[in-house]
Specification:
Elements: E1 6-11, E2 14-18, H1 21-41, H2 47-78, E3 83-89, E4 92-97, H3 104-134, H4 139-159, H5 167-180, H6 183-210, H7 214-244, E5 254-255, E6 260-261, H8 266-277, E7 281-286, E8 289-295, H9 296-300, E9 317-318, E10 324-326, H10 331-341, E11 345-350, E12 353-359, H11 360-374
Length: 375
């Protein structure tokens, strides 16, 4: 879902990253707090004071989102679920799971931990606000802590909406999974909730834009589109998991794939491979040893007048963990690698030898065929 982002720090063993989209939301938060929210809460302060309050409020929200996701991550670790890290992005934050929970109890406890953490944090900020007011800390300080108490409450309540993949949707999936005994069915129902919730947000956002509230309206539209997309992705991944489960890659790979030698020139590659087999990637071997692969992107780097004099071996992408996989690895792990590396074709290896290729196109074809036969 995210790019590499910026690594900020590690906390309790979890790497925290900042997606570049967060810069946009941070600027928007500061602007809206400085020019709208705080001036409405307290009149008569200087512009510099409002902007200072806004920056502090933004960093407080930054801390609150990390705290929310850290609650998810710590509970996940407690139940043996691996979390790769926490990423802050334009719509908030996300704890990146390496795989799906293995049972509904793990799902429920991990999902509910985030909103509960936000409620706790809201209570702490509210108490600090009351204490600050009691000791005469100043209206600006009291207002900032009041905002943080309010925004954490909103964060908790919004995330409890039963629309997958939001926390409330995951809680709903856990409950349905427990009673149905079928994760795929539970995911489908919860994802439908996410789909309709996304549509509702889009409709409300368009209505807000039409009535003149452009910024909040467009914000609702964007969030609605994100929720819809995320729900559809989760539903698809659940279908894939139910079809492939823990079956190994070797059961779905194409054996004896078309490969070429490193000394073949680029002109032959284009004429006799790309335009003959219509694949966008081919393995390159040296004897029985896989040395890498060559793609359309690699060819486009070579001037056309040098195709006949350029050997494929000079432009290949070397074999790596991003384009090769063992036949013993599960299909779900293969799909995860495809998504992370943005690579629809993986070379299957045994030691240094090429034994097959597994492609996203073929897997989608299998899923479509099974759905047709089961409908």
């Amino acid at each position: 879902m995210f790019g590499s982002g910026i690594k900020l720090f590690s906390i309790l063993g979890f790497e925290v990253k900042l997606d570049f989209s967060w810069i946009f939301i941070a600027a928007l938060i500061v602007w809206s707090l400085a020019t709208g929210y705080f001036p409405r809460q307290i009149e008569g302060l200087s512009a510099d004071t409002y902007w200072t309050m806004a920056v502090i409020g933004m960093f407080g929200l930054f801390f609150s989102v990390i705290f929310h996701e850290l609650a998810h991550s710590l509970v996940a670790r407690l139940y043996g679920l691996k979390i790769k890290g926490i990423t802050l992005f334009i719509f908030g934050g996300m704890a990146e799971m390496a795989n799906e929970p293995e049972n509904p109890t793990t799902e429920f406890m991990m999902a509910i931990a985030g909103p509960l953490g936000s409620f706790v944090l809201a209570g702490v900020f509210y108490l600090v606000m009351l204490m600050g007011d009691a000791v005469g800390a100043g209206s600006a300080i009291v207002a900032v802590f009041g905002y943080l108490a309010f925004i954490n409450t909103v964060l908790a309540v919004f995330n409890l909406i039963p629309a997958f993949p939001m926390d409330g949707g995951r809680v709903l999936r856990a409950i349905l999974w427990h009673y149905m005994g079928d994760m795929a069915r539970a995911t489908h129902i919860a994802a439908r909730g996410g789909h309709f919730f996304g549509i509702g947000l889009i409709v409300m956002g368009i209505a807000s834009v039409v009535t003149g509230n452009f910024v909040s309206g467009m914000w609702m539209v964007l969030i609605g589109m994100f929720v819809q997309r995320a729900a559809a992705s989760a539903d698809f991944r659940s279908d894939v998991h139910s079809m492939f489960g823990n079956q190994p890659v070797r059961q779905f790979m194409v054996t004896n794939p078309v490969a070429l030698k490193a000394d073949v020139n680029v002109q032959v590659l284009v004429d006799e491979y790309f335009f003959h087999f219509y694949h966008d990637m081919f393995p390159v071997t040296d004897g029985n040893k896989l040395v890498g692969c060559v793609t359309v992107r690699d060819v486009k780097k070579v001037p056309r007048n040098k195709w006949q004099t350029t050997a494929v071996g000079t432009i290949i992408t070397p074999r790596s963990r991003e384009n090769t996989i063992s036949g013993d690895v599960t299909m779900m792990d293969a799909l995860t690698l495809m998504g992370r590396a943005n690579n629809g074709r993986l070379m299957v290896v045994q030691g240094e030898q090429l034994v097959g290729i597994v492609t996203l196109k073929d897997l989608l074809g299998i899923i479509t065929l099974k759905n047709q036969l089961q409908s």
